[in-house]
UniProtKB/TrEMBL annotation:
Enzyme Commission number(s): 5.4.2.3
Any single Pfam family the record assigns to this protein: AMG1_III
Protein's recorded name: Phosphoacetylglucosamine mutase
Coiled-coil ranges from the UniProt annotation: 388-415
Organism: Cyanoderma ruficeps (rufous-capped babbler)
Lineage: Eukaryota, Metazoa, Chordata, Craniata, Vertebrata
Length: 542
């Protein structure tokens, strides 16, 4: 380690005195002006991680659905997964080290994680369209270079594109070519092969309106357009040329407010969808002839994909284990539908993609989605091998055809992480293959009315949870109070947890009517306010 260079460069990326940040659910996330030292140091950490695992590591500069003024950074592990939890702690230590301690902390990490500094290191970098992202990714490069790492800067890419690149690189191209062209070619080829298998005579032209949250999704979809078949007509809205990133639009806005985004004119029964700011989430929606808005969230996406896959798995007649992984935010009726009607096992894990991804890896076919629209499907190595073999060798036409469809889905879905573009193509293909309209899809089950609220408290760590965050252990009395409140309503459920990305406590409630869901959410938020050290004025009724 060149101590002199480290000192010199870290002085160029000084840590504001007293600032401490934590590597949370989605890496570091805060106001962009507080992040320069963090991204520089994450450049350092990426080099250490790369040396430790002898593979290429990714760094993405983005704050996803958060306001344009924010930014963030997260590391991507060799197969495109989120950074291993054991390293999140190193990330936090390095981020919060005072300038003069930096070298000591690096040495400590090297000792604890058995990093050999003489090994090579390689890092892939990507960034979103935020005005601050370019400069921050320059600081990442400074960090990488100080520790002698090699890097490739992909510039503007969606978060899932960067995950894809890292996986391609570390599988020596087995997962695909580590270029944007490779990504577009892989996805569009799989999509075309898949819809070719459609025997439906339904509409031949497929229109889809896409709200790109004024973010990177618009740029990348435009680049990809020439690769799409002619029948697919995508119309891009909120492309970032006029309005601010994520402002009154995007997947998070639509999900949280349960209303359409600004900037997209929606005619009755038109199929529309929204990406988030870094294009790793997607939700669908439409307006009926009476003008009512219908949201089709991550739970319903998981359901559609599960129906499709379950049917194919039955046709290939293999004993593949399939399951759906959700979080506590999944709508109660989605869980009921999956378990009782579709008869697919459902597992609930803690919020955050890494938890869902990890659980889904336990199955041959693991479908995971957060209600907010982040999700994908994972296929085990054994299932993948078997499916590819059936495509080549199976004599039975129906079985071979089903295996071929599964193979195409495997190629189309981004198995490294939730990917709005890839998910959208999977969904469009399934709707085409099944001849389903957006209304028919929506009608699979009816969402229980629900409400998501947040409350500010002095220290959100006073809330500790258990049972995949569905019950609060502390502060004393809170869970008992929630239990009492829940009993007042029908089909009701409520839980609270500290957010991993914002300084708030989140409250979720569902019940038989919207009024009851709103009332329950409000009452629970008051309980949090009073028992967990609420800040400012008490929450007002909705
Ligand atoms: C209720 C909700 O949507 N929570 C989101 C949000 O996490 P919080 O820990 O709730 O702030 O951001 C995470 C990262 O994007 C995402 O994984 C998660 O689903
Ligand atoms: Mg995102």
């Amino acid at each position: 380690m060149d101590s002199e260079a480290l000192r010199k460069y870290s002085a160029l990326h000084p840590k504001p005195a007293g600032l401490t940040l934590q590597y949370g659910t989605a890496g570091f996330r805060t106001k962009a002006e507080q992040l320069d030292h963090i991204v520089f140091r994450m450049g350092l950490l990426a080099v250490l991680r790369s040396k430790a695992v002898a593979a290429t590591i990714g760094i993405m500069v983005t704050a996803s659905h958060n306001p344009e003024e924010d930014n963030g950074v997260k590391l991507v592990d060799p197969l495109g997964e989120m950074l291993h939890p054991s390293w999140e702690e190193y990330a936090t230590q390095l981020a919060n080290a005072e300038e003069q301690e930096l070298q000591k902390v690096i040495t400590e990490i090297c000792q604890k994680a058995a990093v050999n500094l003489h090994k090579d290191a390689s890092v892939f970098i990507g960034r979103d369209t935020r005005p601050s992202s370019k400069k921050l990714s320059q600081s990442v490069i400074d960090g990488i270079q100080v520790l002698g790492g090699q890097y490739h800067d992909y510039g503007l890419v969606t978060t899932p594109q960067l995950h894809y690149m890292v996986c391609c690189q570390n599988t020596q191209g087995q997962y695909g070519k580590a270029t944007l062209e490779g990504y577009y070619e892989k996805l569009s080829k799989a999509f075309m092969e898949l819809i070719k298998q459609s025997h439906c005579s339904g509409e031949s032209q497929r229109h889809l309106k896409i709200d790109c949250a004024n973010g990177i999704g618009a740029l990348k979809l435009s680049e990809m357009k020439p690769y799409f078949p002619q029948e697919v007509l995508i119309h891009i809205y909120n492309d970032g040329t006029k309005e601010k990133l994520n402002h009154l639009c995007g997947a998070d806005f639509v999900k949280v407010h349960q209303k359409p985004p600004g900037g997209l004119d929606m005619k009755p029964n038109e199929r529309c969808c929204s990406f988030d700011g870094d294009a790793d989430r997607i939700v669908y929606y439409y307006k009926d002839t009476a003008g009512h808005f219908h949201l089709i969230d991550g739970d319903k996406i998981a359901t559609l994909i599960s129906i499709f896959l379950k049917d194919l798995l039955a046709k290939v007649k293999q004993d593949f284990k399939m399951a759906v992984v959700q979080t506590a935010y999944a709508n109660g009726n989605s869980t009921r539908y999956l378990q009782e009607t579709l008869k697919v096992p459902v597992h609930c894990v803690k919020t955050g993609v890494k938890h869902l991804h990890h659980k889904a890896q336990e199955f041959d076919v693991g479908v995971y989605f957060e209600a907010n629209g982040h999700g994908t499907v994972l296929f085990s190595k054994a299932a993948e091998t078997k499916i590819r073999q059936l495509v080549k060798e199976e004599n039975d036409d129906e079985r071979r055809e089903a295996a071929k469809m599964l193979e195409n889905v495997m190629n189309l879905i981004n198995q490294t992480v939730g990917d709005a573009v890839s998910d959208m193509l999977v969904i469009e293909a399934i709707l085409a293959l099944k001849g389903l309209t957006v209304q028919q899809w929506d009608a699979l089950y009816t969402d229980l009315p629900n409400r998501l609220l947040k409350v500010q408290v002095a220290d959100r760590r006073v809330i500790d949870t258990t049972d995949a965050e569905r019950r609060a252990l502390t502060p004393p009395g809170l869970q008992e109070k929630i239990d009492t409140l829940v009993k007042k309503y029908k089909l009701s459920r409520a839980f609270v947890r500290p957010s991993g990305t914002e300084d708030v406590v989140r409250i979720y409630a569902e019940a038989d009517t919207q009024e009851n869901a709103d009332a329950l959410a409000h009452e629970v938020s008051l309980a949090v306010f009073h028992l967990a050290g609420g800040k400012g004025a008490p929450p007002q009724p909705i």
